[in-house]
Amino acid sequence: MYAGRIDEPGRRTGSALVITLMFVALFASMAVALAVASDANLAISRNYREINQAYNLVESGLLLAQCEMGNLKVTGDNAAALNATLASHFQVAWANAAMIDAQAISAGNVGVVFPAIIVPGPDDRMGNIMLRIAADGGVEAEPTVTVTSEGRFGEARRAATYDFQVRSGYRIFSDYGIASRSPIVMDGGATIDGANDPSEGSIYSSSGSAPQAIYMDGTTHITGNAAVSAEGAGIFQGSDANIDGEQVTDAPEFEFPTINTAEFEQYVECAYSGSGTEEDGTFANIRILPNTNPTFNGNTNLYGVIYIESPNKVTFNGNANICGVIVCQEPTLENYKKNSLTFNGNLTAAGVEYLPNDARYNGLREKTGTFLLAPGFGASFNGNFTTINGYVAASKLAFSGTASGTVCGGIVNLADTNFSLLGGAHLTIDKKNAEKHPAGFNRRYSLICVAGSYRE
Q1: Which among 35, 270, 362, 437 is most buried, taking Cβ atoms within 10 Å?
Q2: Are 194 and 216 in contact (CB under 8 A)?
Q3: 339 and 410 co-located in one domain
């Protein structure tokens, strides 16, 4: 039998171990890489979340400021005074806010300085909103007011700004031909239209004293919008009445102007000393004393200021030619039977800018844009007029009969009494040629959002 050495296949010892170790090393490396990648992804995710939170905080800060500042009435002769006004407003508006110490809001050299607004975030972490507001001038310069909001969450920081601008004037001046605190009643064939644009023939009532704050019957017609703002107030439109614009029953409650008649009193030269019934008279810068109750017949010419003290009933018959402004002293007690103006004949009403070049009218010629300022008085227009060069403001207004003509500016009913436009009365409103700041109306300055001003 042959005997020899037989080779055994398992003699290559260590190769399997080497291969195993190689795979172990590979898997270990992969595990480390996955762990590193996982940590990196977690870090990226955390950073991304913090950036998003910071961005949300920025947007929240701007929104908080916008909610308080939109259409806010402001004052201040310079930037520091305007900033102080804004700081005072936020101190009051946010007095009960839990996320900020409102009393720490102050006006400094850089504008309005706010303490941090603390906002809860995810994982019980807190974020901060840092606000700054700065005006670059006083209200008369109609400056820009810039809001800067910075959001801070963790290590993330984001910031953005938004602009407001100070604008002067009242919305009822710019948006409506007729604005009334009382119901507006139109009947017969009464018409309100615009001289340049149909929207000039818009009407607005803030009254809540009647179910129908605007009542239009007969063949009445307005070329603009009809708007009411009081809760529950409605608009009645008869079957033959026409409203060319929109009917708005949820309009904002707009602010009405306050009146300053005192600025005209300095131009009065003498008291009216007539008999009480005048035929073809001419008067300049007169004061009509209480209880005089004059009636002007024939051709009456009035120049400058006609200052009417309360109580008085003043009637214009015939042809009244007025170059100037009628100003009424506001009564202590409401009594429209004792405090009234009535225009029965033809009325010609030129503005103070057309007064003669006479020293007695110096200063007065610059007080443009107003024809009638009659707080506490009723005013009735029953005859024709061509153009009234300025705003008409009284506490109870009525236009009837053939009362027709153009009013440069608009008509304001100052009290919740009655405004009526009846018969064939036809008012044309001209805002294009109206004064932006009519004399005798205290100016109002407010903040308006500047569209497209957002920037990061």
Answers
A1: 437
A2: no
A3: yes
422 sits in which H/E element: none
- The verdict on 219 and 93 lying in the same domain is no
Question: Are both 77 and 187 inside the same structural domain?
Answer: no
* Chain centroid offset of residue 298 CA: 44
Percent of the chain clearing pLDDT 90 (strictly above): 73
Strand segments (E) across 317-369: 319-328, 339-343, 346-350
- The answer to whether residue 325 sits within a structural domain is yes
Cα distance between residue 67 and residue 57, in whole Å: 15
Q: Is the pLDDT of residue 33 over 70?
A: no
DSSP category for residue 292: -
In a shared domain, residues 84 and 101: yes
Question: Where do the H-state alpha helices sit in 133-261?
Answer: 171-175
The label of the residue with tokens 């090393």 reads 25
Residues 152 and 253 reside in one and the same domain: no
Q: Is residue 7 assigned to a domain?
A: no
User: Rounded mean pLDDT of the chain?
Assistant: 90
Same domain for 198 and 129: no
Q: Give the pLDDT confidence score for residue 8 in this predicted structure.
A: 52
**Tally of domains within the chain:** 2
pLDDT at 102: 92
Q: Do 297 and 385 have their domain in common? A: yes
CB 82 within 8 Å of CB 75: yes
Residue 435 lies in a domain: no
DSSP three-state, residue 75: coil
pTM of this structure: 0.78
Inter-residue contact 348 to 386 (CB < 8 Å): yes
When comparing pLDDT for 50 and 185, which is higher?
185
Mean pLDDT along residues 13-41: 62
Measure the CA–CA gap between 177 and 191, rounded to whole angstroms. Answer: 12
**C-alpha distances in angstroms, 356 versus 205, 286, 299, 304, 365?**
38, 16, 19, 9, 9
